Amino acid sequence: IFMVLSLLSIVYGALRCNILAIKIKYDDYDVRVKPAAYLCIFMWRSFEIATRVTVLVLFGSVLRIWIFLVVLVNFLGFCFYPWILFWLSKSPFPENIEKELSRVGTTIVLCLLTFLYAGINMFCWSAAQVELSDPDLISKSQNWYRMTVYYIVRLMENAFLLLMWYIYRTDFYLYVCAPMLVLQLLISYCMGIFFMLVFYQFCHPCKKLFSSSITEAL
């Protein structure tokens, strides 16, 4: 019961962050979110987060040491990714975050921001993409390519972790139909991707402002 309540709480938080990110990106427009959009986001985040957590728990239950490597690689990868993009852009160091902050304080704030960004992306696609070269520190453009790469790589990673769990599973899972469980989890993640596509294609409140639809981008 507590696990279900925690999942619902996290999914609701992800839903609110999605809506907030849309309003921040399109603050010059009157954003009206329809009930269908709320439903798509809720289903998208539910399947995505629940599947990701289950996959990590299953993998960690049989390969307890290796799960730390998986988590560390994911966290450090997403943590350094915004800094790498910032370095490649050759933009000046952000100075207008808060006037009272020194350069050291600004660096600490940016590091905490990227830590939060990395923690979110370990489990689901972040609603707001960090861009250190932007004055608002958030990417205002809709990057279909980055999103597509994220979900393809994440689906492949989940499949690989489930395969490792299937190979090294212990007698604890003797009465579990392992092939069916693997299939259900992969289908669940694909369902999350499906609802995400439906949201951006049909239910996004600002879809008319996109330079291209997600189907055209794919």
From TrEMBL:
Spans through the membrane: 65-88, 108-128, 148-168, 180-202
Q: Which domain of life, per UniProt?
A: Eukaryota
**Keyword set for this entry?**
Membrane, Transmembrane, Transmembrane helix
Q: Name one Pfam family in it.
A: XK-related
**InterPro entries, from UniProt?**
XK-rel (IPR018629), XK-related_adapter (IPR051773)
Can you cite an annotated GO cellular component?
Answer: plasma membrane
> Where is this gene product found?
Membrane
Q: What is its main location?
A: membrane
Topology term for the membrane: Multi-pass membrane protein
Q: Which PANTHER family match?
A: ENDOPLASMIC RETICULUM MEMBRANE ADAPTER PROTEIN XK (PTHR14297:SF8), MEMBRANE TRANSPORT PROTEIN XK FAMILY MEMBER (PTHR14297)
The UniProt family comment states: Belongs to the XK family.
Q: Which named protein is this? A: XK-related protein
Organism from which the protein derives: Callaeas wilsoni
